[in-house]
Specification:
single chain, alpha/beta, globular
Length: about 140
């Protein structure tokens, strides 16, 4: 009998940062590293690859291996600069994503449902409903 490992009730947060080489994205990466240190989170620095040519079969083309390697090297250089600026290390991972994958993740952050399907089952990711701030009662009420 094989038991599945028990996971803690609340997983550590993940911070997904789209790094495109702009000063704004570098600032976002620096902020995310500082926030990850504060919240014991993991930063995933992502470089998004756009489709090179549109041949009518969108989503079926693959970017070249060289394009992905160059993008990953640039991304890692930016991450090293952010680590040097913040002093926060050991909390970042890098990845190169294709545009459709990044759009699915970012649309889930904006309110769309995202269903993750794997061999272990299906999970529906939905944005949390915002909670109303608690009302405070006056003392002696």
């Amino acid at each position: 009998m094989r038991l599945t490992p028990l996971l803690p009730r609340r997983q550590n947060p993940w911070l997904l940062v789209d790094v495109d080489g702009s000063p704004a994205s570098q600032g976002a990466l620096v902020w995310a590293l500082r926030e990850a240190a504060r919240r014991e989170a993991t930063v995933v620095a992502v470089c998004v690859l756009d489709d090179e040519g549109d041949d009518g079969l969108t989503g079926l083309g693959r970017p070249g291996r060289r394009t992905g390697t160059v993008a990953l090297e640039r991304l890692e250089a930016q991450v090293l600069r952010a680590i040097a600026e913040t002093g926060v290390s050991g909390r970042v991972r890098t990845a190169v994503l294709e545009r459709p994958v990044f759009e699915a993740l970012s649309s889930a952050a904006r309110g769309a449902d995202l269903v993750v399907v794997s061999g272990q089952g299906k999970t529906l990711l939905r944005p949390a409903v915002p909670r109303q701030p608690p009302r405070r009662l006056a003392r002696g009420a």
